[in-house]
Amino acid sequence: MQRLSLFRIPLIFLVVFALPLSAADKNKTSTASDAGKPSYEAQQPATETLDYTMYQRIRQEGLGHSHVMEYASALMDGIGPRLTGSPNVKHANEWTRDQFAAMGCSNAHLEDWGEFGMGWQQLNTWVRMASPDTAVFIAQAAPWSPSTKGAVTGQAVWIDVKKAEDVDKYKGKLSGKIVLYGDMHEVKPLEKPLFDREDEKSLAKIVEHPLSDEDPYASYKQEYLKRRELSKKVIELLLSEHALAVILPSRDSRENGGSGGTIFVDRGLGSDIYKREGAMQFPVVVMAIESYGRVYRLLKANVPVSIELNVDTKFTGDHEHGFDTIAEIPGTDPKLKDEVVMVGGHLDSWASATGATDNGAGTVVAMEVMRILNALQIKPRRTIRVGLWTGEEQGLFGSAGYVKEHFGFVPVSTAPDQLKLPEWMRKAGGPVQLKPDQQKISGYFNVDNGSGKIRGVYLQENIAEAPIFTQWIEPLKDLGVTAITVRGTEGTDHESFDAVGIPGFQFIQDKLDYGSRTHHSNQDTYEHLQPNDLAQAATVEAIFVYNTAMRDQMLPRKPLPHPELDEQRSAPLKKVMPGAVEVDEKDNK
User: Fold this and answer.
1) Which of 88, 191, 251, 253 is the most exposed place for a label (fewest CB within 10 A)?
2) Residue 445 host element (H or E)
């Protein structure tokens, strides 16, 4: 999950009512007035027609004959980390395509979503202290770091740069040095478990509907822009001084999980570092906080420290393209087979481990969903399509590219002030642009919150789904699926669909140690996957996908979004205050 994928905010409302369930009681409420409308605009039935026999068959196949961990070991152990643009992600694209074909899917293929940037691999990285003592440190190269071209040794120096003016005091002092850049954060004791499951109390907290209208990302965006500008100054300093290399401290995580040798290697120095024009010009490594701390304290005590390091990396091209893996189970209903329900997750990962929980878990769950449905030889009314996306970690590139090609897109502003911002921060430049197939997709289901079992689903503010999904989960409550939530969550591929008016859903999952230890870290390995949880997730998602493919109507939709009107709608009302004197806006500038 990309970060904005670091800041997932659960925004939820629990639906606690239950509606009558009966496979035989099919309440058709379509009327003559619905004729000619897309079926998602038609009146929805009050009672869902559920095929309990299929529920049982899917449960038996998914829980009793799961192959999800076989996919997991092949992907994580056999292929490994899958940084976008790398040879490994290409291997993963081709392997998943071939697996879909082997399980019986049709039209298994790769779709090019466009040029990404530089391909990169970490071959080897090590860092040690040579004096005043010898010590082996835990460290890895920051993604897209260049090599040192062999082992190098230099004196360590820590720079304290909080604002642009601080840069000047280091001029003439960094030539040939290994620079530590970043504050030493406190390593607090682990007073709470790093591994956690949702209980009734925590689900109730997730359920609570926040009434604040504050933008949860407003402060983050401002801080991001400040850091970006300061980073430019620091990079200019380091280049002009010919610094030998840079060492960054690993960040902390939830419940102080960023300790004990865990490294979160999801940062570099600069912006757009995967593009040649934004490439890092000197080696950058991220070091475990305990290792960083020893050097930091010695330097603060004016003890000279000599560091030796070797960063061995490989670039595979400046103009690598990104690809999505796509496959289908064709629909069989003559009237509905051109309509689609989609399931997916992102195939790319960071490079510090093997990308198991982020998002190998979502990938193998989507694969297992398709395997289950193929194994049962279902004949869906609508076409079921799987999409495994790449470029998610850098900005939802794969899913957004697929949606733009097939369904529509939101144009971004090209105003001069907006062009200075990264694309994900720019304002909408006009209304949503739709393609005809936007009316032919019923919904998209996504898993990207780690290895935990499914506990419910975010409705992404689509209130009309509540009575439908409430009925769907009734036969799944014994598996722990209980929460239906109205408000949404952010930071992963369902947003690409939601942005153009397509029902897109991310499931609520048990947190486990995802946010505390494995997310974007060197601990994101096969060992942190939970086999029973993943089998449950695949079973639940397969039922959601099957139900969507079989119901008479497509899933209901929210009103089409109009992001280009957000500022206008939020602007203060005019002429509200009695007696207020009208002031020319120019006078306030």
Assistant:
1) 191
2) strand 441-446
